Structures are given as structure tokens and as C-alpha cells.
Amino acid sequence: MNKYKLKLRKLMGNEKGLTLVELLAVIVILGIIAAIAIPAIGGIISNAQDDAKQANEDLLINAARLMVASQDNEKASYTDKELADKGYLEAELKGYKGTVTINEDNGKYTYKVDLEEKSDDEDEEG
């Protein structure tokens, strides 16, 4: 058995590093992993942005409900800045500008939210 090990060591003794074929195989495998991972990460980011928008809509509706419950509503539409100024939001929305419209029909209230992404200029100002 030792005889075969010695022959194998002699044959492999000068070999250092990877062969070109091994290197290409590693590059192909990394390419396949990247091709799978990049679209998945894009989907995760898109879902997070959609969830953030939905959370901001819910936040505006809840602030408007608080205002209606405290009988502080003087008009039918409020921006996130106005809700923050009146104390129904901690601060204006980050990254969005929102408007909530309040409709009353025989004591039943409905709320409609319009959210737009702020441009970079608007975000720096507010």
C-alpha cells in the first residue's frame, strides 16, 4: 500500500494551485449562484417597499381616525404634515408625501389615502 502512496506523491509533488478546468468550474458555479440570488434579492427589496407603503397608508388612516374621534377635523382632507402639526403623527412621513381624505355619510366615516414618493429635493427640505 505504501508503494502506491509514494508513487502518487511523486506524481503530485510538483502540482500547486488549481488547474484551468477547476478554476472554470468554480467560476461557473459562482455565476449560477449569482443568477439565482440577484433576482431573489430584488424581489425582497420590492416586497419591503410595498410593505412600507402599506404601513404608511395605515398610519395616515389611524391618525385621521384619531382626529375624527377627538372631533378636531375641520376639513375633508389633510396632508401628513398637517396631521403631524396637529399632533396626530409623531412626524411627517419619510420618503412619501401623503394625503388622507375623510368622507362622512350619516355618521359613517370612510378614509382614502393618496401616497406619492417624495423626490430627493423634497426629502431634503422636509
Give me a quick take on this structure.
Helix content is 58%, strand content 18%. The chain is of the alpha+beta class and 126 residues long.
Describe the structure.
The chain has 126 residues and is of the alpha+beta class. It has one domain (19-125). Helices cover 58% and strands 18% of the residues. The protein has helices at 2-12, 20-69, 80-85, 120-125; strands at residues 77-79, 96-105, 108-117. It has a three-stranded antiparallel β-sheet.
Write the layout of secondary structure elements.
Blueprint: H1 2-12, H2 20-69, E1 77-79, H3 80-85, E2 96-105, E3 108-117, H4 120-125
Antiparallel strand pairs: 1-2, 2-3
Terminal CA distance: 79 Å
Write down the Rg: 31 Å
Q: In total, how many beta strands?
A: 3
Computed structural class: alpha+beta
Q: What profile does the largest beta sheet have?
A: 3 strands, antiparallel
Helix fraction, binned, reads: 55-70%
Low-pLDDT runs: none
Discrete helix count: 4
- Number of structural domains: 1
String of helices and strands: HHEHEEH
Beta-strand content bin: 15-25%
Strand order of the largest sheet: 1-2-3
What shape does the CA trace take?
Answer: rod-shaped
Mean pLDDT: 86
Primary descriptors:
126 residues; alpha+beta; 3-stranded antiparallel beta sheet; 18% strand; rod-shaped
